[in-house]
Design goal:
It is a single chain. By secondary structure, this protein is α+β, with helices and mostly antiparallel strands. The mean pLDDT is about 85.
Length: about 140
């Protein structure tokens, strides 16, 4: 009797494993894309210069217009600024500008909070955005 040749079983198993791996790779890519999209949609959009934004000042929400990036050495006492890159920006008022230091203040419930910023060339000074009250 002649033996009947049978095709090996591994091509079928290989095809199934390849399909499962491809599905896993596609699902992983979609998951990464979905997480990035979710994170971007949850982030507050950064307002552009000239736009109005609502910020907390003296215990209440006030409208401010974002003017421009402010050089710490060019600020004047009384200017209102926020620190660039903060997630929830806090409004600071320039109290005093000396040659090597910038003194910022903001009201808080028990009193005033003070922030001294060094303007020497050795340490990088934070970047600020100049504000003006919205009309």
């Amino acid at each position: 009797m002649d033996e009947v040749s049978r095709p090996p079983r591994w091509p079928w198993i290989g095809r199934v494993l390849t399909t499962l791996f491809a599905c896993l790779a596609v699902m992983s890519g979609l998951f990464v894309f979905w997480r990035g999209l979710k994170a971007e949609s949850a982030r507050r959009p950064a307002p552009l210069f000239g736009e109005q934004t609502t910020l907390d000042w003296e215990g209440r929400k006030c409208a401010f217009t974002l003017e421009r990036c402010a050089d710490p050495g060019a600020l004047r006492p009384g200017d209102l600024v926020i620190r660039e890159g903060e997630v929830s920006p806090k409004v600071w008022r320039v109290a005093r500008l000396e040659t090597a230091r910038l003194r910022l203040e903001r009201p808080e419930p028990p009193g005033r909070r003070v922030w001294e910023v060094a303007l020497d060339g050795e340490t990088a000074a934070p970047r600020f955005i100049l504000l003006s009250p919205a009309r």
